Amino acid sequence: MKSNSLLVLTVGTGTAGKHSSLWDGLRKTIELIAPRKFWLIPSTSPESIVIANYLRSEFPDSFAMWQENLPYHLIENPDSLSQCRHVVREVIAAARQELKKNERLIVNPTSGTKQMSAAATVAALDENIGELVFTIGDRADGVVKTGTERLETFDATEYFAEQAFTNAKAMYEIGSFSSAAAILAPFAQFQNESSFCRCLHEWERNNYSEATSIIKSSSHPARTNMLHHLDLLMDGSRAGAPSPAIVADLNRSAKHLQRIGELEWSIMRASKALEMGLRLELYNVLQISEPYRPSDFDSISKQSTNLRKRIQANTKDNHVRLGFRDLVDVLLELQSPIAIDYQQSAIAKNCVQVRNSLAHHLCTISKIEAFRCVGAVSDLLSHLSLPIPYSFPKTLEKR
């Protein structure tokens, strides 16, 4: 009875012993697996081809031709690991095209030179073949005795999971949280880590509600701490007044982006943190928040004709729209330390100029320029009473 499997086998010349026969060993392997179809990969050695021809004649209904007029994809140099691997990968790719629903593809790398067996194993792992089957049995003279053959299965799932985690960790460490999450998603044992990475991705997008939803359904050890900080950010995004928690988080994010080499994005994020910090300062001093109204500035506009004219020019439908420069000038009138320091900081001003250039032109910045700009903004924000933001781990760990 045929099993729900396809089989790829390498075929060597064999090391026959008094009690063993490669012919019978391979035949027994095919009988035990009973594939719907199988492919043979012999070398160009005449002995190897003879054995392949024997197996082909023993199982004519299930033998699969390599091509219409070519029964085998031959390995010309069975001592070359590279060539063996290349040939086996091509046969695996062809066999995969024949898979039906609920069928599995099995590779048996037992027969052949050591290079053929090693290459077949590596090729199977390269092609994400989850099941390798080795033919084993009682041994005599160093080879398996005919009639004692049995199958030993290697489930490669754990290997693939370990490789996936290594790749995901690398993605995580360069800040590609969504890529890390996608790599880990197929593996049940890494669902918490995948959810954690998805949460961080949404967090970095300032999509606090989605980040909260993701981590709530996770049992990751960082869940409690992350929920606490995300709740603060959620509350801040809903509040009418500027949020110290959000300003602190944007500043943290700018430093993180600068550290992982996302220099242009770090400048954009730092500039946003600075502007929101200025609005927070304005709220702290005058207890006003967006949408601003002309009457909010009565006390200071009387002291400055230029400021009064600017507020009038920026007023529409009884709402005052304050841009970055407007915020600085209003706060300078109020003798705000953060505005005074900004006015005296060439680096901080450069950060805003670079932000504008990035928004309107094709340009890049250097690591040192990003480092200085992000640092200058962080120094300015130290004038504000900001909470210490949650800092997620710099490396991804198994939990």
In brief:
The protein is of the alpha/beta class and 399 residues long.
Distance between the termini: 44 Å
**Helix/strand class:** alpha/beta
Number of separate structural domains? 3
- Low-confidence sequence ranges: none
Strand content: 5-15%
CATH homologous superfamily caption of the largest domain: Hypothetical protein VC1899 like domain (Restriction endonuclease-like)
CATH class of the largest domain: Alpha Beta
CATH architecture descriptor text of the largest domain = 3-Layer(aba) Sandwich
What's the total helix number? 17
Q: Note the main sheet.
A: 5 strands, mixed
Q: What proportion of the residues is helical, as a percent range?
A: 40-55%
Instruction: Tell me the number of strands.
Output: 9
What name is given to the CATH topology of the largest domain? Answer: Rossmann fold
Strand order of the largest sheet: 2-1-3-4-7
Helices and strands, in order, run as EHEHHEHEEEEHHHHHHHHHEEHHHH
Q: Report mean pLDDT, rounded to a whole number.
A: 89
Q: How many whole angstroms does the radius of gyration measure?
A: 34 Å
Overall shape: it is elongated
